[in-house]
């Protein structure tokens, strides 16, 4: 399989790129080089290689959830700039 200048023009149109003829030739050559490299990779024997989903071993780094008592409302409201009826009072954001 190889990429033609017509293929590059089509992709450029889809991406809404205006390429010069020199750029079309350049990208055609670069894309063909990539495809040739991919073909070369097909020569590798991967029968004995174990399939992986990620290159690094992953583990869950989150701690387990645990119930613990909440702070008393009086202590929480000490941090409030203003409070009313045991709740934080904030400026109205709707008119």
Describe this structure in words.
It is built from three helices and two strands. The mean pLDDT is 90. It is mainly α and 95 residues long. Helix 1 (5-14) packs across helix 2. Helix content is 38%, strand content 4%. A two-stranded antiparallel ribbon has the order 1-2. Strand 1 and strand 2 form a beta hairpin. It has a domain at 5-41: Histone, subunit A, CATH 1.10.20.60. The protein has helices spanning 5-14, 21-41, 73-77; strands at 83-84, 87-88. It catalyses: L-glutamyl-tRNA(Gln) + L-glutamine + ATP + H2O = L-glutaminyl-tRNA(Gln) + L-glutamate + ADP + phosphate + H(+); L-aspartyl-tRNA(Asn) + L-glutamine + ATP + H2O = L-asparaginyl-tRNA(Asn) + L-glutamate + ADP + phosphate + 2 H(+). This is Aspartyl/glutamyl-tRNA(Asn/Gln) amidotransferase subunit C. Belongs to the GatC family. Its EC number is 6.3.5.-. Keywords: ATP-binding, Ligase, Nucleotide-binding, Protein biosynthesis, Transferase.
Q: What's the gyration radius in Å?
A: 31 Å
Name the CATH architecture of the domain at 5-41: Orthogonal Bundle
For the report, how would you describe the main beta sheet?
Answer: 2 strands, antiparallel
Number of strands: 2
| Class from secondary-structure proportions | mainly alpha
CATH class of the domain at 5-41: Mainly Alpha
Order of helices and strands: HHHEE
What spatial form do the alpha-carbon principal axes imply? Answer: elongated
Tally of individual helices? 3
């Amino acid at each position: 399989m190889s990429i033609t200048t017509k293929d590059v023009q089509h992709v450029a149109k889809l991406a809404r790129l205006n390429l010069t003829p020199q750029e079309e030739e350049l990208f055609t050559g670069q894309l063909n080089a990539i495809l040739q490299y991919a073909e070369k990779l097909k020569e590798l024997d991967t029968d004995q290689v174990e399939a992986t989903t990620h290159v690094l071993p992953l583990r869950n780094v989150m701690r387990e959830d645990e119930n613990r008592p909440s702070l008393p409302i009086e202590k929480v409201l000490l941090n409030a700039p203003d409070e009313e009826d045991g709740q934080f009072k904030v400026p109205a954001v709707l008119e």
